[in-house]
Design goal:
754 residues; alpha/beta; 3-methyladenine DNA Glycosylase II, Chain A, domain 3; TIM Barrel; Rossmann fold; 8-stranded parallel beta barrel; 8-stranded parallel β-sheet; 29 helices; 25 strands; 41% helix; globular; binds iron/sulfur cluster
């Protein structure tokens, strides 16, 4: 296992003197674990600790690079612990005794499988040349042909003379054939030139042979774990990997080859099943006797599932995808780069058989509504995408269909792309078939064209970017109503748990409509419900609000605060000007405004915004994706902490969010999140997060049980705040009860009468 930041921390001097350039010893140790700093940068680290850590930080399994592919380098046994890093590669056998015609046919078959799936090229990466004893020339001829075909090469031979001839042609090759009987001669032929594949009957025999070769100075090895039976092959593959990663036996830390063509020479069905088995456990290269599309589609799909990081969104590459033979004269559909969205939308378009150019814009792998709410799929991002990919000159047709779920963006997109006729497509992908087949988009495009003509839209962007005069924002008069609900004065110094009500969110259709129309009633109603339920803060999510963010946020802040005794608010939008505008009218009587949110990646400048405006900021411990583990979480935490402190912020004004994860799908990561909260707490930092994420997708009646249990566990770890639904009585009662036990709230028999 790779050494963890916390393990290094245990050996650190814990002086927090900052001489290493990091604000705390913990921050320094996290960076060392990430490989960002050498351990020797701390002048107070003992020699013993340095010696121990140097040994511990050596990788448990070597990465061998050959034929343009990386093999090995794994750090964990199971994918759910941490991502597997080097995908299984596939090889196809080519015997050296084929005649010229058969050889050509074999290579034609090998190179036929070559396709893209979710932005990955799927093809046969290696040719596995079998030395049939017909001479070095025959073997090298196949090797040359494989190189010409752009494939990596593995040569199976136990003949040192053949090995020498091959490495004379190319050193970028695995010579698979060292055994206990011939290893010295094979090592002499291959060492310093190529990678040596070793064969042994049992894991113990692999250890003995690898140890001898290491002593002879060769650490460029792979283990061909193929045995006489599938059972022994499986045992070899698992025991070798376990010895390297669990038992920390470095001599066993090499990638493996599994030759399933040998295990089932006469049955492709069995080979396919074995290929699947050894893709999962633990073939770095799986060798088959053929790879047609019938074999390729299942195993490459499996590989992609196993080797894709489950915590990173599956994305497709942004760009133009012409479907059903679309040409530049056909209409365009635009959507996000979330892989599932792509597959659903492209599948339905293909079913319609209508030629369409599907435009995939970069939305950080989020779904349509999530990306929209986070400001990643907006009129600006679409405009940027059009500019970067030069869509205007690549596509002649000017019909642009946008997802029905973000119909609200139509006007803004139309203004930013005045040459185009923007029409609102369907809310669900499945409805696209009818929409396209019936030509509904044509009528919509014509209507858009006429509307433009009537409005006098011609060319050039209608929205003028530039400085905003905050004093001249125009928004409707603030409505004042007495709803009989009052926010109780709050002591900002109180240690009591801070609840941030999540229900004023633009993803809710009623709130979205209210924000579009500046209709205060639905917003006031939800504010009243949450305040009555005891929320400390209210989150106000206005979405990207690119067109009128400053006006909308100013109006929303004033509307809520003026009606509810200056209830403190979290301002939640990707639009920075809107946040600035909201803060200008914000009343701080009951606490500073919260900016929701910054991260350690593209949104880090929101920390600057908080510093400049004396605000609290929710600091998501992520960059461009969910952190893999707590080392990465703490690395992000310290990056943001350093940024905030360097700008003069108090550490307590950064509320660190570990990112609560959904139990359905990420059950094994829940304790990581709880442990991260403990780490924040141990460093004296405050924490928060969208706690109810954990129960997303769970039955309605189960969610309060999950949320209330998790909040109790998280508060035990030191969580100081959470973004929740305060109208979930069970969760609120749990929070108050935890505050009682933590002695943050004085007990009385009526403490639950809030
Ligand atoms: S790790 Fe950094 S902060 Fe800690 S004692 Fe060493 S130099 Fe000082």
């Amino acid at each position: 296992m790779a050494v963890k930041g916390l393990d290094i921390f245990k050996l650190s001097p814990k002086k927090n003197c900052k001489e290493c350039g990091s604000p705390t010893c913990m921050a320094f140790c996290m960076k060392v674990a990430q490989g960002a700093l050498p351990i020797t940068k701390c002048p107070y680290m003992s020699e013993e600790a340095i010696a121990l850590l140097s040994e511990a930080t050596a990788p448990p399994m070597k990465t061998i690079e050959v034929g343009g592919q990386k093999l090995g380098g794994e750090t964990v046994m199971f994918r759910h612990e941490k991502t597997f890093v080097s995908p299984t590669r596939y090889a196809v056998t080519v015997p050296s005794d084929l005649d010229a015609a058969a050889l050509d046919a074999k290579f034609a078959e090998i190179t036929k499988v070559d396709y893209q799936r979710i932005s990955e090229r799927e093809f046969v990466e290696y040719v596995f040349v079998e030395d049939k004893g017909n001479g070095a020339d025959a073997v090298t001829a196949v090797v040359k042909k494989a190189r010409e075909a752009g494939r990596g090469v593995i040569v199976e031979t136990g003949d040192p003379e053949v090995a020498k001839a091959v490495v004379a042609v190319t050193g970028d090759v695995i010579i698979d054939g060292a055994t206990a009987d011939n290893y010295e001669a094979m090592n002499a032929a291959v060492k310093d030139y190529a990678v040596l594949g070793i064969k042994a009957p049992t894991p113990e025999a692999f250890f003995d042979l690898a140890e001898k070769l290491e002593k002879a100075g060769n650490k460029k090895l792979v283990f061909d774990v193929t045995a006489d039976t599938a059972k022994q092959t499986f045992a070899n593959a698992v025991v070798v990997r376990r010895a390297a990663l669990v038992e920390n036996v470095r001599t066993m830390g090499y990638p493996s080859i599994v030759n399933v063509a040998k295990l089932a020479p006469d049955c492709m069905h069995k080979q396919e099943a074995y290929a699947a088995l050894f893709t999962v456990k633990y073939g770095s290269v799986v060798v088959m006797s053929q790879m047609s599309y019938a074999e390729a589609l299942p195993v490459y799909g499996l590989r992609q599932n196993i080797f894709t990081d489950p915590q990173r969104p599956m994305k497709v590459t942004p760009g133009i995808y012409p479907l059903n033979g679309a040409t530049p004269d056909d209409p365009c559909c635009v959507t996000v780069d979330f892989a599932l969205t792509y597959f659903l939308v492209s599948g339905e378009i293909e079913r319609s058989k209508v030629p369409v150019n599907l435009l995939i814009s970069d939305a950080s792998g989020m779904s349509v509504l999530t990306a929209w709410a986070a400001g990643k799929f907006s009129s600006s991002s679409i405009k940027k995408f059009f500019d970067e990919y030069d869509i205007d000159s690549k596509i002649n047709n000017r019909t642009l269909i946008i997802p029905g779920k973000v119909a609200v963006m139509k006007g803004e997109i139309q203004e930013k792309l005045p040459e185009w006729n923007v029409c609102v497509g369907t809310r669900e992908a499945v409805e696209l078939v009818k929409y396209l087949k019936d030509g509904e988009y044509k009528a919509a495009a014509e209507a858009a064209e006429k509307a433009k003509a009537a409005a006098g839209v011609s060319s050039g962007p209608a929205i003028v970017e530039g400085p905003i005069d905050f004093d001249k924002l125009v928004y409707p008069e603030i409505k004042h109503v007495d709803m009989g609900v009052h926010y109780q004065q709050r002591d900002p110094e109180s240690k009591k748990f801070v609840t941030i009500g999540e229900r004023i969110h633009c993803i809710s259709p009623s709130i979205r409509a209210a924000m579009e129309n500046f209709d205060p009633d639905p917003i006031l109603k939800r504010a009243a419900q949450q305040i009555k339920a005891g929320a400390t803060y209210l989150d106000v999510n206005i979405g990207p609000a690119e067109k009128n963010g400053p006006e909308l946020m100013t109006w929303a802040v004033r509307t809520i605060q003026e009606n509810f005794d200056n209830v403190p608010l979290a301002l939640d939008t990707a639009n920075k000007k809107a946040i600035e505008a909201g803060i200008r009218v914000y009343n701080r009587t009951n606490g500073k405004p919260i900016i929701n949110s910054a991260d350690a990646g593209s949104r880090i400048s929101n920390i600057d915004l908080a510093a400049a405006n004396d605000a609290i900021v929710i600091a998501l411990c992520s960059a461009d994706g969910i952190a893999k583990d707590n080392d990465e979480r703490m690395h992000h935490c310290h990056t943001m902490l350093e940024r905030g402190l360097s700008l003069g912020m108090e550490a307590t004004d950064l509320w660190f969010d570990p990112l609560f994860l959904v139990v359905k799908g990420m059950q094994d990561k829940q304790m990581d999140v709880l442990n991260a909260i403990k780490m924040f707490s141990d460093e004296g930092l405050k924490s928060t997060g969208g706690l109810s994420n954990n129960s997303n997708g769970a039955p309605k009646e189960v969610r309060p049980i999950m949320d209330s249990t998790l909040v109790a566990m998280a508060m035990m770890q030191g969580l100081t705040s959470a973004i929740i639904n305060p109208n979930d009585r069970r969760t609120m009662e749990t929070i108050h009860t935890c505050d009682i036990f933590k002695n943050y709230e004085l007990y009385s028999d009526s403490y639950l009468d809030f």
